């Protein structure tokens, strides 16, 4: 069995690209870009809550970093560095090596340096802290939406939750939907490019990790607004609709922007080759309230908004 | 039972002192001091491995931040910001409130802003990532020791391990030793001031978290050196000696400095009112080798060097 130090050296120590001192000392050293603000986020993934025990290790390595990158996207930040703390049961060298392969696949794809970490034994869990940069005052926040802004969502929310429902035998998906939903669940693609493009354009942004309605609720509460939603092509009933409205884990970006930018958003969608769907607008009213109607103007009452780790 | 958001708002959201945007968005925003390097470290504390299940929650809050501050001390960094990720079983509001009280006691004492975090349900564990600053090139590393350097340790190593042995009924301590050892175990005092004073003076530094010999081994391996140790007043036998040499969790600083600075070190000890003990010197030789002799020149073979989380 490898020691902690052998494990770190073999699996988690790679050459860095833009770091003064990486893994292996009491701390890492970076030189932040002069004149930029540093954007910092930390996220936990715990077995049984955020991933199933039998999740493929390489996929899990990718996802562990990707969900943190998604927070950088939601802030409009350029991600640059990350640390990883890993709690691992009696270590299987092969498992950890596969996990690190997936993690570095994601790191290489987004040009992230892994600069430090910690490992210990216990029930499997991962904590990534991620660092990005943004020009002062340009990071996207949750509290900047104005009454009358359009509300937008990227991609196709609910796919990851549908993929999970399939794995848990609560539904049966067919190809090609199955492949798309499992890819959304196992290899989420953080919307970094979209986040960067939204600097100076979006009035507020959040990434959908707990569910679209729940995460929209955060923007509305922090911006003191109500929302009127009328979602084009919303699945009419059942699990697919619940997943669209309340399924977490997709890591799409949900954002608001002034209504006069609707045309610019459609142009942006074309340029990024990424669906951007206008799902409603904000309004003055009870902070956090959501009014959702279907194509015929009938009110819809969702089963739940999203996921709370302590409810 | 409070929701995740109520819990964070009540227990972990406090006004910040030197932060652009703190807890409550997808990421925090800080403005690093122009011209400084950023020093980053991340550490895990897992129940059963790093602390006992019945540890006082307030003490544990203090220690969770203090052990990370110790990494900043070992780098010679001025600590400024921290994030906290917490895995908690079915939450007791009182427990978490006491934990946060201890955490903020420590944060206030060292002028740290808590800028972000994550909470989820599961077997109790904490991950802190900490951020400090140091002038370029002045952070203390493990790999800078030169042959002939003196080796120094701050404070009295082994106290925390002795305190733990008492709690586990492997020994019985009497007052005032008991109080000192339990304080070292529950309320470690990171040696920030010492770390800052050692900038430009120490050739290498590490904090003793795994055990003095194990952590000295990291300096020796990374500096390609051997050490000859002759420790004044080392307990002659038994548990007290094992704890001195191999007990972790004290968070004292272990460092090397050129022999001509021995006098300066004694002056520094007086200025900081902190014991600094010269325990030997480095030498050319097999990297990582330790030769330890007692007052009569007899070789000592320690039972073990320290703690490895996977052995």
Describe this structure in words.
The structure is a homodimer of 311-residue chains. Chain A is built from nine helices and eleven strands. By secondary structure, chain A is an alpha+beta fold. In chain A, the strands form two sheets. In chain A, strands 7-9-6-10-8-11 form a six-stranded mixed β-sheet, with helices on both faces. Chain A has a four-stranded mixed β-sheet with strand order 2-5-3-4. Chain A is globular, with a radius of gyration of 20 Å. The mean pLDDT of chain A is 91. Chains A and B meet through helix 1, strand 1, strand 2, helix 2 and strand 3 of A and helix 1, strand 1, strand 2, helix 2 and strand 3 of B.
Secondary-structure element series of chain A: HEEHEHEEEHHHEHEHEHEE
Number of DSSP helices of chain A? 9
Structural class from helices and strands of chain A?
alpha+beta
Q: Indicate the mean pLDDT of chain A.
A: 91
Largest sheet of chain A: 6 strands, mixed
Give the strand line-up of the largest sheet of chain A: 7-9-6-10-8-11
Name of the CATH homologous superfamily of the largest domain in chain A: PurM-like C-terminal domain
The assembly state of the depicted protein chains is homodimer
Rg of Cα set of chain A: 20 Å
Q: What is the molecular shape of chain A?
A: globular
Strand content of chain A: 15-25%
Count all strands of chain A and give the number.
11
Terminal Cα span of chain A: 40 Å
Range of helix content of chain A = 25-40%
CATH architecture of the largest domain in chain A: Alpha-Beta Complex
- Per CATH, what is the topology of the largest domain in chain A? Phosphoribosyl-aminoimidazole Synthetase, Chain A, domain 2
